[in-house]
Amino acid sequence: MSEPVALADTTDQRTTRTPRRGLGRFDVFFLLLCSLVGLDTIGSLAAAGHEAFTWLFVLSLLFFVPYGLIVAELSATFPLEGGQYTWTRLAFGRFVSGVAQLVYWLSNPVWVGGTLCVVALTTFEKFVHPLPGLWTYLAGLVFIWAGVLCTSVSLAVGRWVPAIGGIARIVLLGFFFVSTVVYGVQRGVQELNLSDFSPTYLGFIALVPIIVFTFVGFEVSSSAAEEIENPHRTIPLGVLRSGVLSFLMVAAPVAGILLVLPGAQVSNLGGFVDACKAVFTVYGGQINADGTVTLTGFGAVVGVLAALGLIVGLFTSGVSWALGECRAQAVACADGAGPRYLGVLSPTRGTPVRINVLSGLLASAVMVAALNFTDGDSGKYFSAGLNLAISMTMVAYLTVFPTLPVLRRRFPDVARPFTVPGGRLGGYVVSVLSTSIVAFTLSQLLWPGVGIGWFGSSGSPDDALPSAFEGQRWTYEVTQLVPLALFLAIGVAFFLIGRWETSGRSPGR
């Protein structure tokens, strides 16, 4: 038999299962670093041009900092297995937290199968070897199920995956930035004008979803809070350290891409990959007259090594998020917000193997369906999958960020080793800021261009559609609204199954 996952007791904030401490501050740091630094979105940011850099700084202040402060206080005050599910459960009850958690968990297979695979496969084909026909599907399945394996082994083994991913990110992005400097010295860079950085509303609504998604992941480590040594201190410190480094690791490569590549050559899907190829010509190779890049000699070797590092980074992003999301979903199911069959941990590994396998099956289905739905159009495949994954994550955050003032009011006597500065007002400010930006982000994902043309302003909402869906408003809406409605319905169904089982009417009881 498998071991049921115990939910935190809401009266004294302790779990009934004896925790097996084993994750230290470095484990938390690398786990958060892999969760926060998403290499799949760097190209999308750079594709938006110099304005992306402006909004990157603005949203880091208006969203990234408040979000980090919220998670730091909640994780220090309620270091409970399940993390954000448990916080929402304590604040708003099982139904709201259960449905939100289900959508939050499902965002991982959509993201892994719908975007990470695409970028990984594109990178492999550009640097290593083409993947014709069925080889594309086979490579994608290997990518997905290797991740399932890594999330199903014990945490004592699985914790090394984020560590490898974190080191790969530091080395890859650091080497890319240094190479950009060398390239600029030898061959010059793109001309920059201050006016290019001027913010616009159209640019804002296009960039908010990508930047916000780039800046999320602080809560991932909290899902395994009872496995972390001294979580009251370790998690908040991990949030601070990883947050600062993550911002630098995103801003630096975006700046490098903007300096190296002409705007017309930067795409959502291949921006970072294309920039790497262009920059690495300083080690051997050339940029042809038509803009294509050929790497030779040591440049080709460096290109292959960088490609492998990027694929490792993408792979460990999916694994790091799955480590948190799958464990939180298992806690939700054990608590009665889903089928109890899924709310168990392996008695030998201490990981939610059943949830992990189900995630792998769903990610595989997403990959196969999306490839066929888009007729091999990887750009459209990438845009649809990424936007859906972001919108699903935003649905969950709409319930997480308001929990801070609610839990302060409901549990005023619980010790708070870390609190958001500014007292009660500070708590409301960060909660309102984060929730408002998430709500706006979700509205732009579900109906791009909301606000354009209002109050006599110029422009059309269709101008905000992803470039792969230009002139295809309803095709885009089908890829977003239908799956999201289906996932919300599944969340309600999970809750009803869990309530039925906990009521004592389950045939197995």
Structure description:
This protein has 509 residues and is mainly α. It has one domain (23-502): Amino acid/polyamine transporter I (Up-down Bundle). The chain has helices at residues 25-36, 42-47, 51-77, 84-92, 94-127, 134-152, 155-158, 160-187, 201-214, 231-260, 271-279, 297-337, 353-373, 378-400, 403-410, 423-446, 473-502; strands spanning 3-4, 285-287, 293-295, 344-345. It has a two-stranded antiparallel sheet. The chain has a two-stranded antiparallel ribbon with strand order 2-3. Strand 2 (285-287) and strand 3 form a beta hairpin. Helix 10 (231-260) packs across helix 11 (271-279) and helix 12 packs across helix 17. The longest helix has 41 residues, at 297-337. It is globular and about 70 Å long. Residues 4-19 have low confidence and may be disordered.
